[in-house]
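Dear support,

We are seeing what looks like truncated structure output for some complexes. This example has two components. We would appreciate it if you could run it in full and send us the complete token output so we can diff it against ours.
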Amino acid sequence: MTDGPLLKVEDLRVYFDTEDGVVHAVDGVSYSVDTGKTLGIVGESGSGKTVSSLTTLGLTRLQGATVTGRIHFEGRDLVGLPDRELRRLRGNDIAMIFQDPLSSLHPFYKVGHQLVEAIRTHRNVSKSAARKRAIDLLELVGIPDPQRRADEYPHEFSGGMRQRAMIAMALSNEPKLLIADEPTTALDVTVQAQILALLQDLQDRLGMAIIIITHDLGVVAEITDEICVMYSGRIVERASTDQIFDAPEHPYTWGLLKSIPRLDRPRNEDLVPIAGRPPSLIMRPSGCFFHPRCPYVQKRHRTVDPELAPVPDDSHHQVACLLDSSVRRKIWNGLQAGRDPTSLRELAGPGLPSRAPAVAAPIASGTRPGGLRAP
Amino acid sequence: MTTLDERVDAARFTTDEPLIRVRNLVKHFPITRGIIFQRKIGAVQAVDGISFDVKRGETLGLVGETGCGKSTTARLLVRLLDPTGGEILFEGEDIAKRKGDGLRALHREAQMIFQDPYSSLNPRKTVGSIIAEPFAIHGMLKEKGARKQRVQELMDRVGLNPEHYNRYPHEFSGGQRQRIGVARAIALEPKLLVADEPVSALDVSIQAQVLNLLRGLQRELNLTLIFIAHDLSVVRHMCDRVAVMYLGKIVEISPADSLYGFPRHPYTGALLSAVPVPNPTASHRRSRQLLSGDVPSPANPPSACRFHTRCPKAQEVCSVEEPTLEEKGGGSIAACHFPLSRDEVRREVEVTAGE
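Here is the complete output from our reference environment:
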């Protein structure tokens, strides 16, 4: 049973039919994660990172979504699995923690009660045994005085403690896979560091696989083994964590790395923002989805849709970019040396004819910026 | 005993005549019980006696965990809140108790940018009238067409299309809305701009656009900027000096280079060591100094040094005698009995790159 990865997602597509058109939330995404490993999914809002993981748990089923592709978990395909069986899996073998612990815990029930419920849903144990386990779990995640805290309501917990309680609940049935969706975004840095250390410690002890979804490159650098960078419903780059930070290949990944101020870089280093803003998932750009914002765009990038393909000398490092690999390396070296993207543009080629600035027009909903096509 | 004022001057916060001098500023929010007869049963000591100066054209950062009083301080400085005590000298004049016309005059000089670009813009007003509102309030630019022209100039300056003058906030993205907020704040060409978490609600790729805009404007208009953020990397990028707050007190206030290079207060060190760094090699090298527990309640803060309950270096004196803000060498000013040493910083905190 343990051959191959624990979770393997293949060509997953999730489309939502809405009044305004079809939202291509996830559009052909493939990734996998092994037992004991941590995968990071990085992207901005609307990149499809959350929807892809909700789909793994079958949580997008009710919203009139079309889901195609395969999600193999221990050899079973979750996409076609009946709701009953999926429910048995959810919270048991696969658990999830959400960004906002206050809205994910029920405000009317005591924390201990909610944990007992999570345990008894999947296990045939007595209430008192479940309560004992609930208290052990609260202790495991580092809540002081768990006996007393189990009888408190979520509003009596601080933000960090609520997130710990969420983690305790997720761990209540010793899941094989834990999906953490922005687990620390609402928290202070000090508490964030505690929670990340806790997750790593629990992974070491319980050997589960973790998928962490975040927009924070610092968080993924700290705890992941592999990273998928998502943009507009697709994975644009996938590589080991070290490769993503040392030798990123996609212009969007460069943009992300260069647009955040970093404590490990000189203080007065200029930030290089990515022009424009993420495209709509209904009216997507033609060709490479990133081309309206890409400083290195060439004429054919507007029509040719790049595939996620391995880079020449590293089969584990995949990128969806039409630029030549040697060109990409030259540009990244230039960026590392502190050069401005505009000064590196000619490395990529002649650029667009009669080039209008690549700033994706200030989009107001309802308008159609040039260069977009209906799906 | 020296007075606080003398100590502060001795510590040489600044040399030139500052734009703002804050002395012993206090804000307590009462906790009451009862519905008709409200009895005061305590107070949340949101800001509890802070003093600092801000030079003209300088950017001062305020950092700290949730509930440390940084947003309250910001709102006090532009007088959106009434201080419980203390002085705020704006160009030498005390504005702490101003009301009515005096307050309105202050708001021509001091403006604020808010965190949430969704709730800080009136959804029923067009962008044009939102940005023109300061002119309406202060009765400026009354000639026909003058206001519109000025608003369109402002929109152009902050990177918005001036033709979108008649659109409503919902037609804009988060980053663009924040630009609207910035345009409104600089409309009256204030001397002081207070930005409370201006980029935390924005996507990563948009954050840098707004940060660069603020920097450009500051240079151009010679603005004094007070910049609040929980992201310490952003604060380091933006600020000349940084004040670290903990439970309503300033525990360290230093030039950014000293603060990030050689933090003296253990709390500053803990904050810095908690920042995740997007560099896998560096982050695995550090031995993290994790703070345990949560921030104590500001309604009932610990005695003496408020950090002593969580401080790894705390000793008995810390719970008895409150440390004062004083110079600790290298331009750092910290309130601590046992400031961090070079070795401790190297072991537990250091990831920052030199200039």
